[in-house]
Request: fold
Amino acid sequence: MRAAREHFGPQWLAERLALLLPGFPRVALCVAFSGGVDSTALLAALVKACRAPTRLRALHVDHGLHPASATWSAHCRAVARQLRVPIQVLSVRIEPARGSSLEATARAARYHALAAALDAGEMLLTAHHEDDQLETVLLQLLRGAGVAGLAAMPALAPFARGSLVRPLLPCSRAELEAWAHAAQLNWVEDTSNADERLDRNYLRRRVVPTLRERWPGAAAAVARSARHAAEAQQLLDSLGLMDVERASHGGSLAAHSLRALPAERRRNALRFWIGARGRLVPDTRRLEQLAGPLLDARPDANPAVAWGDTIVQRHGGLLSIVSAPAAAGEETAWAWRQSLTCTLPEPFGKLELAPDARGPVDLSALPGVLTVRARRGGERLAPRRGGPRRALKSLLQEAHVPVAERAQLPLIFAGERLLAVADLWLDESVQAAAGTRTRARLTWIRPPP
Reply:
């Protein structure tokens, strides 16, 4: 244990928070409290470090994955009560998607719950320390991460309606455990930490001890490298902002401006633009598709690249970001006689039927319950009375509807018969004629960009 680190405790923590949070102690702090030794040491030290007007409380997330999770929640309540700290227990449901990591799914659910529970301006404190940083950098290296990934966990970052603060990054796990023992604190041990099927546990139990045998200062050295990477990422972000501002056309990017950049700078600009829009940055393969084939495609090709819930499309000379449509099998029932407005799942917006004496829709021809869903391929309708049934794909191409918008169009069915495509086309079977008495106008209210 290094001498410079032997002073962890309330005084050290107060000085650290004053450095990270200029408003300290006039701040509202909320500890992500798992009940383990790290977060217990953080919460107990905070109780002694903070004085009025600091507001302090704790949040505990019960994932419900372990048989003892209810016992852990009860322990956290008891510790918080002993420390006289208000606590709230948040229960989450974990349903990993096919092929996804349970560890990653649980982490995402945990932070989602914590974000929803934070008050405006409140700071969420986690007990991540120097050893966690070492494990994070190693994991990012093994995943082939770039500079942003190798920067690992920052000490301070925007989060929800406040900030995420990691004041213990300069401290080792051993230092926190030593202080917790000296303070006679009680904590719980998560037995899942011994499960070496989880990547982080494998690194912690098998790899890191071997590294430390050869390089005792590995954690501190890697933490310095992470700080260097974070500084480099700040420079890349500044360059990305400059390139994006030059290429901006409203919320879109001009393809010709991006093509004028060197390949590595083009990729950096795209990464920055996507991240700044609050989207998950794509993997290397898809980023290469964005920076190469998508930009180089012929002007009328309307190419698109999709990942997760995000689509980047090029329509003409502009790149734009849209949300991927809901699953193809998802349907919404619309009992329009009960409500003339149908709110659809993201990213489809809303549909409205408004009575209109000159409207093109024959209400008497509509069944009481309609079905709304996304395209699946092969849809056809007759857009002209007495005309042929046309493939929707052909109609969309002739109307030059952008590729990504095609996936967002709500289609209205009666059984398997397509009656309307958003507010673009109506099938002849529901079109009003000269003698139609009850007419309406169908409007598609697009989702916000």
